[in-house]
Amino acid sequence: MKFEKILIANRGEIALRIIRAANELNLKTVAIYSEIDAESLHARLANEAVCIGPPPSKESYLNITRIISAAEITGAKAIHPGYGFLAENPEFAEICESCGIIFIGPPPAHIRTMGDKIQAKETMEAAGLQGIPGSKSNIEHAKDARKLCRNIGYPVILKAAAGGGGKGMRVARDEDELDAGFRIAQAEAKAAFGDNRIYLEKFIHRPRHIEVQILGDHHGKIVALGERECSIQRRHQKLVEESPSPAVDDNLRKRLIEAALKAAQSIGYRSAGTIEFLMDQDKNYYFMEMNTRIQVEHPVTEMVTGVDIVKEQIKIALGNKIAFDQQDVELHGHAIECRINAEDPARNFVPMPGKISFFHMPQGIGVRFDTHIFAGHVIPSQYDSLIGKLICHGNSRDEAIARMNRALEEIVIDGIPTTIPFHKKIMKHPKYAAGDISTDFIEEM
């Protein structure tokens, strides 16, 4: 399981994040890049860089054959997928293994099981976790959905079995909305995932999205690194995350961690992963899904625990045992992350690619900005609009908010619209300051 060189099958800030972790572990890195990313920082800062195709993702960052070829040509014995692209593609993980390349992530079987939302729910309920009331399997016809809704009641939410990121999701408050939403959800699921299977759950009013970060090694050891609050979302896409959650006390945190550990132990999980819950207003929590990869919001957990999650992920892939125990995990202070996107909030958050004419990074104690941008960098239209993650840490939540407000005022990104003005509104909102948040927060602003 030993390797000395990692190929990073990704781009942008997460590629840089992996390069930093590898450098600290004295490992060499290989960047892959599309033609439009030739001048990108991840291509410049890796030890080696290989162009794998033109800008469209399917011809570059999603082209498994070219990625494997790049690894073989450069002698990289391990591949880190980051997040997005191929990170949760079990076929990619299997191909890596068949080529004698270590996939820095969980086994393909875990990716496949947890990637299927119906199978994941069945697996976790069998392990003793309570899921959201709803269908036990996929629903093929709207008439079957109507029958189920007569038992569990409205409102309900339709979800794609193979889905994520809010695609193939529809809320129905009555039978008419259910019939129309069913057809739309099936069509969206088929278009996005090539799989039109739909399942149904009871819709929880003003829930919180709470997730627990876990690490598991090859020796059967699993630890949890506390929880994250990810309720500030727009169209099921996270905008702001924080750790710890303002709604979780020590007793509830203990129960959430116990549930997450039970979930991971039930499948013998290894690598970094996240157990995600929906929590209602009475603080009842329900298993929602498991993400089998490093997540965009992992830095808030790093800031409050002092654990470098990406380094731990790499060390686990090397066969190392996690060097600390559950009782060693302590949360210090509070951390908040704002996802900075190249989008125009005034125009319904339409992506706005273009050239950055000037960039000033916020600085000072407790401020971290994970980004791949620089003055003169061109944001391409072919990829995700995320251009940076602003993370602020304080001794308390109030101090973290104050630092975030200061950092948002200090950061300068000229040349393209960004979501910075919108984040300023969130941070100054009295309900956010009070911790009165839910997945409906943006709609209620």
UniProtKB/TrEMBL annotation:
<comment type="pathway">
    <text>Lipid metabolism; malonyl-CoA biosynthesis; malonyl-CoA from acetyl-CoA: step 1/1.</text>
</comment>
<dbReference type="GO" id="GO:0006633">
    <property type="term" value="P:fatty acid biosynthetic process"/>
</dbReference>
<comment type="subunit">
    <text>Acetyl-CoA carboxylase is a heterohexamer of biotin carboxyl carrier protein, biotin carboxylase and the two subunits of carboxyl transferase in a 2:2 complex.</text>
</comment>
<dbReference type="InterPro" id="IPR005481">
    <property type="entry name" value="BC-like_N"/>
</dbReference>
<keyword id="KW-0275">Fatty acid biosynthesis</keyword>
<dbReference type="Pfam" id="PF02786">
    <property type="entry name" value="CPSase_L_D2"/>
</dbReference>
<keyword id="KW-0443">Lipid metabolism</keyword>
<keyword id="KW-0276">Fatty acid metabolism</keyword>
<feature type="domain" description="Biotin carboxylation">
    <location>
        <begin position="2"/>
        <end position="445"/>
    </location>
</feature>
<dbReference type="GO" id="GO:0004075">
    <property type="term" value="F:biotin carboxylase activity"/>
</dbReference>
<dbReference type="InterPro" id="IPR016185">
    <property type="entry name" value="PreATP-grasp_dom_sf"/>
</dbReference>
<dbReference type="InterPro" id="IPR011054">
    <property type="entry name" value="Rudment_hybrid_motif"/>
</dbReference>
<dbReference type="InterPro" id="IPR004549">
    <property type="entry name" value="Acetyl_CoA_COase_biotin_COase"/>
</dbReference>
<dbReference type="GO" id="GO:2001295">
    <property type="term" value="P:malonyl-CoA biosynthetic process"/>
</dbReference>
<keyword id="KW-0092">Biotin</keyword>
<dbReference type="InterPro" id="IPR011764">
    <property type="entry name" value="Biotin_carboxylation_dom"/>
</dbReference>
<keyword id="KW-0067">ATP-binding</keyword>
<dbReference type="InterPro" id="IPR011761">
    <property type="entry name" value="ATP-grasp"/>
</dbReference>
<keyword id="KW-0547">Nucleotide-binding</keyword>
<dbReference type="InterPro" id="IPR051602">
    <property type="entry name" value="ACC_Biotin_Carboxylase"/>
</dbReference>
<feature type="domain" description="ATP-grasp">
    <location>
        <begin position="121"/>
        <end position="318"/>
    </location>
</feature>
<keyword id="KW-0460">Magnesium</keyword>
<protein>
    <recommendedName>
        <fullName>Biotin carboxylase</fullName>
        <ecNumber>6.3.4.14</ecNumber>
    </recommendedName>
</protein>
<dbReference type="GO" id="GO:0005524">
    <property type="term" value="F:ATP binding"/>
</dbReference>
<keyword id="KW-0479">Metal-binding</keyword>
<dbReference type="InterPro" id="IPR005479">
    <property type="entry name" value="CPAse_ATP-bd"/>
</dbReference>
<dbReference type="Pfam" id="PF00289">
    <property type="entry name" value="Biotin_carb_N"/>
</dbReference>
<dbReference type="Pfam" id="PF02785">
    <property type="entry name" value="Biotin_carb_C"/>
</dbReference>
<keyword id="KW-0436">Ligase</keyword>
<dbReference type="GO" id="GO:0046872">
    <property type="term" value="F:metal ion binding"/>
</dbReference>
<keyword id="KW-0444">Lipid biosynthesis</keyword>
<comment type="function">
    <text>This protein is a component of the acetyl coenzyme A carboxylase complex; first, biotin carboxylase catalyzes the carboxylation of the carrier protein and then the transcarboxylase transfers the carboxyl group to form malonyl-CoA.</text>
</comment>
<dbReference type="InterPro" id="IPR005482">
    <property type="entry name" value="Biotin_COase_C"/>
</dbReference>
